[in-house]
Amino acid sequence: MKKYWKRILACMLAAGMAASLGASCSSPSTASGTDGSSTPDAAPAEKESYHFTIYRSGAWPTYPADGGEGYQIMKDAMKAYGLPNIDWEVVAIGGTEYYDKLNVLAASDSMPDAMNVDMVTLTSFADQGLIIPLEDKLDQLPAIKDLMRPAEVDAVTYNGHLYAFPVGYLEGAINGPNTNGLIIRQDWLDKVGKDVPTTIDEMYEVMKAFKEQDPDGNGQDDTFGYLGVDSTVFDVIFGAYGIQPQFWMETPDGLRMGSTLEGTKDALATLQKWYAEGLIDPDIFTTDASLKDQKFANSKGGIYEGSGFTGSSVQPETAALLAATPTAKVAPIGSIKGPNGDFGAQESAPGYGNIRAISSSCEDVDVLIQLLNWSVDDSENGGFYLCSIGVEGEDFTLSEDGSKIIQTSTYDEIYAKGLGNPVRFLQVVDRRWVEDDAVKCFEAFQDSYRENKYWGTTPAMLDYPDTCTKLFQEYLAKIVMGSLPVDAWEDYVDEFYSMGGDQIEKEVNEAYQALQ
Amino acid sequence: MKVKKGVGERLFEMVNAFILAVLSLVMLYPFWHELCLSFSSATEATRGGVFLLPREFTMQAYQLVTKNAFIWTSYANSIYTAVLTTGIGVLLTAMLAYGLSKKQVAGHRFLSFAVVFCMIFNGGLIPTYLTVKGLNLIDNLWALILMAIVTPYNTIIVKNFFSAMPSELEEAAFIDGAGPLRIFFQIIMPLSKAVLATVGLWIAVASWNNFMGPLIYMNSRENFTLPLYIRQVIDGQMLARTTGEGAQSAVESVIGATIIISVAPILCVYPFLQKYFVKGVMIGSVKG
What we know:
- The complex is a heterodimer.
- Chain A is α/β, with parallel strands linked by helices.
- Chain A has helices at residues 2-24, 68-81, 97-107, 119-127, 142-145, 150-155, 186-192, 200-212, 235-240, 263-276, 289-297, 316-324, 365-375, 411-417, 436-446, 459-463, 470-481, 488-515, and strands at 50-57, 86-93, 114-117, 157-158, 161-162, 168-169, 180-185, 224-227, 248-251, 254-257, 301-307, 330-333, 345-346, 355-358, 396-398, 405-407, 428-429, 449-450.
- By secondary structure, chain B is mainly alpha-helical.
- Chain B has 2 domains: 7-68 and 232-271, no CATH class; 70-217, MetI-like (MetI-like fold, Orthogonal Bundle), CATH 1.10.3720.
- Chain B: It is found in: Cell membrane.
């Protein structure tokens, strides 16, 4: 009798244990699922069809799981193009968690065939041999090769090899890489009788007028000169002093981090003075992007850290501004010159932050490259438009000279169809769809930026993750807000070098030399 | 008999009520804010500020969100996963715990050790991923279910509850001719409703809120669960804003509408489950 008890209990226990093991430990559990779905098995050479898994960093929640009708449209075009047997699957995840997922896949030998990478991931994957050098493959991409900027090709070159494809750019300032800059309220300028500032001194005068002369006319002292976000580095202001604090800059002693160079101190002194006089939004270091937009839309500030898109009246922040203040007008600030005539904002990250690597586990690299080339080919049956903006005649029309794209579907609709950004296997920047007002802003921002001499990541940067960015941002906030004197910048430089900065600087210079 | 309250006591009650009212307003406002945002027009939502009522009332954001079938797919996936995880989880946790509560079972000490061991050490993300991959469960909702059904912590809670149950109950049932299975299902389980409901609730909430699991193990849109999908909607709106593609939609109100749609069912069910949450807190504490 007692034995019977034991047996039954042991059975119950075993069932529970098996589940518990499966849940908590890594030992293979009893159940062997045969209902799996992914990973088609690899056929020998001369395949009848090729299947590629492509990981895209970006959130397009309306993109259909099976590729939607866009999949068939693309298949048909590829068939006519001469690539009948290529098949693909796109996995798109937005935000930083994309890299969480990618790292798990890399560690467990389940890499996708092609994927978006950032510079940190690129260097670590390249070191581990997870992605392949691509310099020999550039010639197989005639549709995009000449549209890439040589500087960007260099920027994604690591240890002498090209480990990713940057983006291409169509001609014209509108399609340039630098999209961010300062936007100013033209209507406020008119009211206080000033022009768009071009120097630090003029900018000071304009902001002072914005602060003191009640440009919104509500009778209250509630306006500021400058609106930004908590992560701001005031790149335009630093640029006027010949510095980009978080860029590697060329000096007679080799590359140095901008924030350790003398000009930084002058810029900090200026910013501290502006902040003390109430010209900069006092809450700037606790303001996120949507709060910044709110302040802009509610006419709290006259100069706004925006992008070229802010110039467009349908962009959310601008539309909200216009709804509240129909007379509002915005204009770009081209460049702000400092005491020595220096200027220049931060240039955008290489490849517009959108670079693509190919996994070393990809079996048919050359076929994959054919797919990539098709996706940026704008000749007949090429995928250029399908993979960026949809079907001609259905989703957009081209102006007669081809210089403008008139969209008839929203981006959400294009994604829902299975076309556009999710299947943009390579990117060629094409902003012909942007409205004329925004075009003006883009053009103003294009020729006023400073280059980062080294975009890569070195091992010491990974060992000291806070040294290059966070440390400076802390000191910046404290000094600008006046809780530390400007001289504290010297402490910052000491701390930078003691927190691994010397090692990082050495490695960056070595890597830079190797590139030259 | 009515005891007259002193001035001090009344004052205390008034202050108390006031503080609690302020507290509940503080808790309720963020939800109200999202609700108002979701019903406000695009431009008004971007302007932000304090909302007492939606401004320029519109259903546009809801039309945009519900037009997309994936929100319902991920809804269904979340419900499917939560229900199965909870059902199977409660049953298996109870079975394991019942066994562990019987000291006479062979290997009892080792098995108890194994459960506690798993509570302190686990395989880690990569080995777990490899296991799931080996089982061919990548991009399959069962990966999420199997991984969440039995956790050592829940098992120990339930085991302690079973251990505290008088053995006379089982002996009486045994004398009346009930076998172990019958005792388990007809005596033990019904008497343990409180602890099982609590554990069930924990499992359900953990499953409903699970973000990392679906992120790592699910690939296809068809298998996204609600937290992952919402995150994609929010990221998508942010992305659209920076790439100038948000022109046609309302960033803030779409985010608001998505959040409201996803919390609404929980909000409806919660009042009926709340007492179990309270009970959950009491489990393990000394009872009078």
